[in-house]
C-alpha cells in the first residue's frame, strides 16, 4: 500500500501544482486531458485512488494533529510547534494554526474527480469498481467530517463545477451544520454496502476502508451531531449566511441521540460479527509466567501499540509511530546515560494524572477510602507496590492505589516500566524505573532531554522497544489507531444514556471496557466506594461517569480535544492552569511542590477554527465564525 501511496502522491503533487495559485475555494477541475489520462486503465486509476487516500490527516504526528498538544492533555517544550501556541490561546484568523481548509477541499475535489471518471476505466471487474467507489465516497465523507469538526458549518462540495463555471459560481456559501452532518451520513450509507467486511490480504491492503470502519465512523459522526456543540447550541444563534440563513439550529433534538444510539449498535454488531473484540494480552508463547498485574498492563497498552490487534477498527497506515515513540520515550537504561536519541518530551500535566480513578474504580475526589486531601504528601513504596513503583522509592501519595490505566499510561518519578529487554516480572528489582528529579537520569537538566511537568507519556510506547546503545533505540513501529472498539462501546453508552437515561445496557458497554482495565463494574464501584453511591442511577451522574471513562480509556489517542469541544466542556477545562512538579529540585520534599507552568485561556470563539482571512477575502460569500 505504501508503494501505491507514493506513486499516487506524484499525481497529487502535479494536480496541486496546477491549482496552487488559487486562493479561493477551488472546485473546478482544470487540465481535463490529464484527468482523462488518469482513467485510461486500471493501474492508472489505482494511482488516483491512493491519491485520494493520501490526504488523510496524519494522526499522532505533532505537525498534523491538533489533538496531540493543541488542548490540555500534553504539554511540550515551549519552543516547539504551532499547536502548542494554539493551546496557549494564540490562534489567529491570519494564517490559522493547523488550518486544513485548503488541503481538505483539495482532497474532496480529487475524490469528486475520481467518482466522476472511474466509470471510464475499461479493464477492471465491476465488483472492484464498486469497492473503489465506496472507498472514495467514504473518504469524501471523512474529509467533510474533518472540516465540520474544525470549522462548524462548511460549504459541502457534492460535485465539482464544470470548467466553464465562472468565478461567481465558485464562490460558494456555507451550508447549515445539520445539512452537513446529514450529507456526511448519507455518503457513509452509500459507501458501506460496497465495502468488504474484512481485509483479505493484510500485507497489501491493511489500512484500506472496510464496512466496519464505515459504520463506526457514521456512529461517531452522529454522536458528534447530537452533542451539545452542534445540538441546540444557542451560542451560535447569530451565525448566519449573508442572506440570513441560520447555520445552527438552536433547538435541542433528542431524536439525534436516538439515531446515534441506533448507528452505534449497528456498528458494534457488525464489528463483533467480523471478529473485532477487546484486546486481552494472551500470547501463544511467552518466556516467563507473568503476574496478573503485568498482564493487565499489557492488555491496556497493547490495545493501542500491538499492530493490527483484535481491537483495532481503523488505523492510519500513513501515520506510523517510530519518531513519536523516540520523542516520548524516557531514558530509563542506566547503562547508556549519555544518549539523547530518546527525549521524553511530551508531558501530561498534573490535572491528567489526577483524572484517573483510584484502584477502586471511582474518581479520586469521590473515593471514601482514599486520602484525597493528603495526595501531595510523601509516601514510600512497599512490597505490594513493587510492580507499579520502585520498592523503597519515595514519591507522592498521588501515585499510590490508582487504577491500572494510571500506571499503564503515565511515567513518573519512581514509576516502573515493564519490558524493554527485562521481561521477568518476578525479578522486579531489575525492571526499569524513572528517576525524575533535577539532573537525575530522567529529570530536567540533562542535555538534549527535558520533561515539562514531571510526568511522561508511557501509553504509546511498545513494551518490546529496547535501548541498545547511546545512539540506538530499537522501535517496534505500528500504525496510529483512529478508532478502537472501546471507543465505539463508549460512544454507544453515551448515546443510549442521552437517549433514554441509565439502563443495564448503558452500563454493559462501560463495564466491558472497565473489566479489561482491571476494574469492577460501575454499579459495584460506586455503590461500595463512592461518596455519591447513587451517581450512576441518574442521567446526569451517568453522563459524568461516561465522560470520565472516555477521557481515561482514550487518553493520549487524539480524542480528548474533540470530546471536550463537542461536549462544550473546553471552556471549563481549558481555563484551568497547566501544573506540574518543581522540576529544579533534587529532594522529594522540594520536588513535590506544585508549579504553575501556564495559565490557559479558552473563549467561546475557540470552539471553532477561524476561516483564514485569505479565504474570506477571495470569497465574499463566506461568513466568518463568531468572535473572529
From TrEMBL:
<dbReference type="InterPro" id="IPR012944">
    <property type="entry name" value="SusD_RagB_dom"/>
</dbReference>
<keyword id="KW-0998">Cell outer membrane</keyword>
<dbReference type="InterPro" id="IPR011990">
    <property type="entry name" value="TPR-like_helical_dom_sf"/>
</dbReference>
<dbReference type="Pfam" id="PF14322">
    <property type="entry name" value="SusD-like_3"/>
</dbReference>
<keyword id="KW-0472">Membrane</keyword>
<dbReference type="Pfam" id="PF07980">
    <property type="entry name" value="SusD_RagB"/>
</dbReference>
<feature type="domain" description="SusD-like N-terminal">
    <location>
        <begin position="95"/>
        <end position="220"/>
    </location>
</feature>
<keyword id="KW-0732">Signal</keyword>
<protein>
    <submittedName>
        <fullName>RagB/SusD family nutrient uptake outer membrane protein</fullName>
    </submittedName>
</protein>
<feature type="domain" description="RagB/SusD">
    <location>
        <begin position="340"/>
        <end position="628"/>
    </location>
</feature>
<dbReference type="InterPro" id="IPR033985">
    <property type="entry name" value="SusD-like_N"/>
</dbReference>
<comment type="similarity">
    <text>Belongs to the SusD family.</text>
</comment>
